[in-house]
From TrEMBL:
PROSITE patterns: PROKAR_LIPOPROTEIN (PS51257). Residues 21-44 are annotated as: Disordered. SUPFAM superfamilies: Pectin lyase-like. InterPro entries: Pectin_lyase_fold/virulence (IPR011050). This is Twin-arginine translocation signal domain-containing protein. It comes from Haloferax chudinovii.
Amino acid sequence: MKRRTYLRTLGAVGVGAALAGCNTPDEETPTETPMAEPTPTPEPELTVLDAVDDLGMDPTGQESVDDILDGVYGDDTAVEFPPGDYLITREHDWDRGVSNFQLVGLGDSHKDVQFVFPPAGPGEQFRMLRITSGDHHVLKNFSIQQTDDDTTSADIWLANDDGALIEDVEWLGRTPTDNHARDQLLIFDCTSVDGVSVIRRVYMREGAALPGYPNGVAGIRITERSVGEVRMIDCHIEQLGSSSFRATHTRGVLRVEGGLFKNNDNTNMRISAGDHPTKTSWIKGATVIVDADNLNEHAREGDRLDSPEGLRIDSTGHGYTGVLIEDCDFVYRSSTSSPGIITAPTYGSHGGFTMRNCRIVNDTGVQTIYAGPVDTDIAREPWGMILENITITGACESQPYGSAVVVDENRNGSRIVDSCIYLPNGRVGGVLVNRASNCSVEHTSINVSGPPTRSRDAELVLDDVSYTATCAFRDE
């Protein structure tokens, strides 16, 4: 067996730079011999194995690689896959507390290395990997080929204490309904409070069966096992049968940075603030697009979105509060019925949330923003919705609640600041506040075809509100 062993160490230059310059200008330079810098502790050796040359895997997809994979799984090991197809025929249940294990494709594209599966019989799914312990697992630069049939599906469950990374991985082929697949394609949990694990450039964009809730399959799920931080960076999830990602039960946090979430049924983004002792969840720089009349090239005749929300703020009854949505775009060009572009439903029992520097384009009759009544027995304070520097435009001619922004019962302390609402068509109101106290609209323009503001048994203060701005926005 041809083994290549690499020794990875911390850079001494980096350690020295971190320690340099600690004296203040008034301190005297010591004359005694300075203490030696600490010697970096080397990381463990990483044994790197070529899947074909070293391990004898078949890169043509004809012979199973299952037994070889099970045999090589262990600490401080990386398996590198040359371009080709590698056949998986059963679940790999790896709950062994392993540290530092990697599966890495060597292709120029992540599509050069594909894991393939035999055609699935009715009701059969392939859980490619089930890793529920350990740390610092890396899955990188390969694809999972589900094919375009209506039964073959494959998923991954990766739960690490710290340092997990899934990067440049794509699910190819059509995702079936949950009769032939599990509820999601990727479960990804960080199982220690101080841990940080990363999902980067994961793609799910080749379409799915769209049976309507609750039978569609979601993309990424962060579960109640997750108590640390999960970062989700620059992912593209499109046209799945349910949520592109969901983190509602988690006691840890999910931090989404960038990414495109388009035409996913049920909801394109579903998140809570989490219950971490020092961190809160956020979504920054992401784009949501719903254009139900223009599904992508992977759609089949009869495929139709049932009820696509843009963002659902939801803690599934846990009462979390404080999630941040920042620098995001929400674009609704065409849509079937939906609870809303941005919603915080009562059943989710979520407290307050903040949206900052976001743009919403609504060309449909879908409710633009709906902050539903708060269950004050469950949801933690603060309960208010803060909209700061929000632009709402579009060609919509009506709203289910009459106004684009709805602040409902007990959303006390809600504020709309430095924002602009421009909806000149049909009869569309601006802001409705219902049975909530200490709410305000400040330094904001509301140029709409219906009443700019309405309140029902509510306290609504207007401060420097104008009614003429047209809210310029970027072209698509």
